[in-house]
Each structure stands twice: as structure tokens, then as C-alpha cells.
Amino acid sequence: MALTCEAEETPSCHLIRLVGEADGNEIPSLERAFTRALAARPDAVVVDLSGMTFMSSLGIGSLVTLHKEITRNGGRLRCAGPQPLVAEAFRRVRLYDLLDIRDSLEDAQNFL
After folding, report:
1. Are strands 14-22 and 100-102 parallel, antiparallel or unpaired?
2. How far is Cα 50 from Cα 47, in angstroms, rounded to an integer?
3. How are the residues of the chain apportioned to helix, strand and coil, as percentages rounded to the nearest 5?
4. Is residue 112's pLDDT more than 70?
5. Taking the domains of the chain in order of start, what are their residue ranges?
6. pTM surpassing 0.90?
7. What interhelical angle do 57-72 and 27-39 show, nearest 10?
8. Quick one: pLDDT at residue 64?
9. Which residue has the higher pLDDT, 23 or 63?
10. Using an 8 Å Cβ cutoff, are 68 and 35 in contact?
């Protein structure tokens, strides 16, 4: 399944919705979405993972790079709703220790 990346400005954050699989062929789309988010220099970014069924190690690396760039500029990144296969990959590489990962989009968007 191809990856779809949609971005939206909400009152609380720059929201990136990812749907599908982030395998090696789809990484350029993922990186373009992340680059556009960085160019906007938002204070807060939420990556909605609830529609992702798979994320390769390259996709995980892109997410880590996004985190580093956002925090270097004083912003915050949260991820929301990873499906079981993606959540397990995150656990295996200890991404839960690095990223702020929330169970729901609503919780992730609450930056108060």
C-alpha cells in the first residue's frame, strides 16, 4: 500500500497524517512531508501514525531526524496512535525512550 502524507495547520500544531506503508520506496514522500513541516518552523508538530501499517528502518530514521531538527529549533514533536506493528518496531529500537508517543491524536494535540 502506498504512503499518503497530508499536512494541516491546526490551532495547536502542524499536523502530519501518514496513511499506508513507509517502506523504502515511499521514503522520499515521507521526507518531503517532514521537510515541508520543518520549513514552516512550527512550535509543535504532531505526526498521526494511526493509519500506518508498516514503517521501515529508513522511515524510523526520518522520524528521528524530524525530531532532532524540530527540537533544535525549540519546537516539540509528538507522535500519535501507532498501530501494533509500528508500535512494536518503535519498542524494539527504543523509540519510546526518545519520542513523545501518545495513544490518541487528541492526547497528542494537547500541548497545554
Report:
1. unpaired
2. 9
3. 45, 30, 25
4. no
5. 4-109
6. yes
7. 10
8. 96
9. 63
10. no
pLDDT in tens, 84-110: 999 999 999 999 999 999 999 999 998
Residue 95 exposed, middle or buried by CB count within 10 Å (0-12, 13-18, 19+): buried
Q: Report yes or no: 80 and 105 within 8 Å, Cβ to Cβ.
A: yes
- E-state strands within 23-65: 44-55
Report the distance separating Cα 73 and Cα 35, nearest Å: 14
Q: Which residues pair with 102 in a beta bridge?
A: 80
> Which contiguous run of DSSP H or E holds residue 90?
helix 84-92
Tell me the fold of 4-109.
Transcription Regulator spoIIAA (3.30.750)
Please check the confidence at residue 1 and state whether its pLDDT lies above 80. Answer: no
